[in-house]
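Help wanted!
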Amino acid sequence: MATTYRICPRTGLQFDTDAEKLMRWNAVAGVLALLVGGIMAVGVVLTRWPAVHLLSADTFYMVLTAHGIDMLLFWIIFFEMAVLYFASSTLLHCRLATPKIAWAGFWLMAIGSVMTNVAIFQGESSVMFTSYVPMMAKPHFYLGLILFAVGALIGCFVFLGTLVVAKAEKTYEGSIPLVTFGALTACIIAIFTIASGAVILIPTLLWSLGFIQEIDTLIYRVVWWAMGHSSQQINVSAHVAIWYAIAAIVFGAKPMSEKVSRSAYLLYILFLQLACAHHLLADPGLSAEWKVVNTSYFMYFAVLASMIHGMTVPGAIEQAQRLKGYNKGLFEWLRKAPWGNPAFSSMFLSLIGFGFLGGISGVMMGAEQLNMLIHNTIYVPGHFHGTVVIGTTLAFMGLTYFLVPVLFKREVLFPGFAKLFPYLFGLSMYVVALVMMGAGTLGVSRRHWDMAFAGSPLAYEWPGAAYLMMGLTGVFGMIAIVAGGLWILQIVFSLLFGKKLDEGELRNAPIPLTLPAPTGAHAAHPPATPGTMVLALIFLVSFILYYFVNWKYLSSLWGLA
Amino acid sequence: MTAISPPEQRIWWKAPLDKLEFTWIMIALVWSLVMFAMMIWWHIYGNQNLANVVSKTTKEMYAAKAQAVVDKYTVRTETDKQIPVVKPPAGSDVYLIGRLWDWWPILELEKGKTYNLHLSAMDYMHGFSLQPQNINIQVHPNYDHTVKVTPTQAGTYSIVCNEYCGVGHHTMVGRIYVK
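Answered by r_m:
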């Protein structure tokens, strides 16, 4: 217990020095992965922009493999490790359990991510993020992923250990904070994810080394997606926790109901993973009953949970704002929100985009029969740029503006750009997600080098609108990439050259959290949230309309039975 | 006490619910159940359901079955590659092969008639993407997936491969004529 504790003079948060260093390194490693993934995005976008068609086919598939893995696994999971350490050690005012083991986990993740990237850029592992058998990558491609996963698993157990330490050393009273509860949800899902990854990637590694003859393609897809989709469910839990955290930090917002928000997280733990089935709806060999039950998260209970969070987060903000006196009409609370604060604007754009673009499209294409309309089309990346980029990445980027002064003790340089960034990046990503989904609705394939089918004797001609939308994907994709690149520069410059800020008081022992004597003053009658309810109903109406439009579209297809 | 601190009320699970919050939860629950019912309803009343008629096969066995149909019902060949155009009788079993990098053979079907379309891959996985209909089905090697299809409009349709299958993936296009 040789660690020290620092009280941040700007926020009053208490950081265990060991945990703080781990958070910084994990966040930086995440941003480095984001940088590599972002550079790869240039190649992807400029090749799929039909008028530019930059790269050759083999380079394109290599770059696309790297883009997927660096973004969907490395960037996000590194950053999530930082979130786990923050949500446990910092929010519970306690020391981090076993910091040395946490470092071992970090270095395994670092070595693994470098190894897989090396394998990809050597050029013989262009197997995409999904690495479907029987297309084989080099053994170190799989080994890198396995090492990364083991490192992340260690991080998860350090997080759980820290919860035990906090409880045992009585550093807090009552229940863990909601944000920590959300991080715990993410952690539980992560353990399931990584275990599934091990079950499929270890045999695949042995197969690529020649010890196993054959891996069944259907079994591979079923088990791989238990990792591939679940890894994105970690993000959902984590970024929803960050929405709650930013609402708390920026507005001092109190959850509308601890019971409701925690129950919604519980629904995630119980049902979210079933969504692995979303990827298997167009596959043979799985019964309709299996598909219906799993794809719907057993009667859409995880969708229910997301719809609850989608209301309770803005609802908590509305309550906090109304308590401050922004009571005029339905939306004064929202108009008077700090739209120039990038942590808030990122979080709000993330919330709206995740719901309207990522959420609605995800549920539509997750309906068993509707999936036939979009399976493997560019609609799918359109959807997950709505969830993972607008939902998760934008929330993480917004949170980083808060972390630079708090965690890195530096002032953010170029505050003018910081104000603009969430809109520039977020809104251009809104357009990217929309036009990709538009092109996908017309049938354009994902992971496809040339929509003109050069060299094929039976080439198909896509409608002009598909070309237009892929062109727009190019234009707005580039705007988003430039914005993201500037964001990375801004953060790196701030970390290196930003004004050093006061470290704050260093102590040898943590100050435990104590609950104030119950006053019941504003807890008894929080204000109603009619504005949020109106937003929620607009969401519901859009959802219902879009959902049934697609059934109408499906009914016009050839008969299939 | 916010979301980043422990709940103010220790017994938070007994706190009463906000009225609007409760209303929204009920609305969301009903909508969730409607969506769940919709998939089941479509299985009973809808005309577009993916069959799960499937058997394990081998590449050799499947290729032999496809070849037999091609030998029996080929009406002409098309393109420089002499791709056979197969016109099977309505109601019969039709075999489509996905391989690096084509869909083989070309099919000629009759509008309004039903066929048992078999799908399987010879090497990697492939993606059957019928355009401009936009029907998309995953095609596995070693699995023979049988789908009952009933073309409802005449025309020339393309089968684009939409599962990444290597560097020639973009050249993998097949064709179905409906007359």
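OP: Thanks! One thing I noticed: Chain A has a mean pLDDT of 95.
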